[in-house]
Amino acid sequence: MQKQIQGEQTREQILQAAERCFAERGYDATSVMLICGHAGVSKGAFYHHFESKQEVFLELMQRWLETLETQLTAFRDQAGTAREGLLSMAGLVGEVLELGAPQLPIYLEFWAQATRDREIWQATIQPFQHYLAFFTEMIAGGMESGDFRAVDAERAARTILSMAIGLLFQGLLDPDGTDWNEATTFGLDLIFNGLVPKEAQ
Q1: Is there a contact between 38 and 20 (Cβ–Cβ < 8 Å)?
Q2: Same domain, residue pair 8 and 57
Q3: What is the domain extent for residue 98?
Q4: Which residue from 113, 128, 156 is spatially nearest to 26, judged by alpha carbons?
Q5: Alpha helix ranges (H) inside the chain
Q6: Are residues 11 and 64 in the same domain?
Q7: What confidence tens digit (pLDDT) does each residue in 55-89 have?
Q8: How far is residue 191 from each of residues 149, 152, 187, measured CA to CA in Å?
């Protein structure tokens, strides 16, 4: 049991050290040796837990995506309507920027590395497709309840995702440029004006 606990602690040390290194230096400039130095472990210990630097990177990305998934699901389940659920999710942009500031550079690394590494691209596109289905289902539910007029739910979901990703990038580049929660809510309101039934306008 003690060995298992120590093994889990070592694995976590490696992940935390890698996250710092990727954020500070980028993926390509971060070596296994550098991660080991920051984690205070040997290369043997590293390869006992991970096959490669890429595997560490993918696990960090998966952790971030799982956290985001948990938050999105909670907002959806707690909301009374699809519109309320989407508006409550707007706060996630500001939350990511405010609470995750030290890790923000690694978010950019996820997307940048996905353009150069097919395995990372596949790991990135799968959750994107999942989120597309997630928002498509929400919008379709809003149409069924009468909150939204009949539109192509998938195209509407792509529009919302594109706006959210674009605002996140802007926030990464210019975190103090505006209130990003308000900017996201404003953007959603613009989209909703095109989704609400004409008789409700």
Answers
A1: yes
A2: no
A3: 53-193
A4: 113
A5: 2-25, 32-39, 43-49, 53-78, 82-89, 91-99, 104-114, 118-145, 153-173, 180-195
A6: no
A7: 998 898 888 778 878 888 888 888 888 888 888 88
A8: 12, 13, 6
> Distance between the two ends of the chain, CA-based, in angstroms?
63
Quote the tokens at residue 39: 């984690």
Could you give the CA distance from residue 28 to residue 194 in angstroms, rounded to a whole number?
43
Per-residue pLDDT of 3-58, as tens digits, reads: 777 889 999 999 999 989 988 888 889 999 999 999 999 999 999 999 999 899 88
Q: Which helix (H) or strand (E) holds 71?
A: helix 53-78
What does the alpha-carbon distance between residue 158 and residue 145 come to, in Å, rounded to a whole number?
21
pTM of the model: 0.73
**For the chain, percent helix, then strand, then coil, each to nearest 5?**
80, 0, 20
Tokens of residue 48, six digits? 């006992």
* Cα 122 to Cα 106: distance, rounded to the nearest angstrom: 18
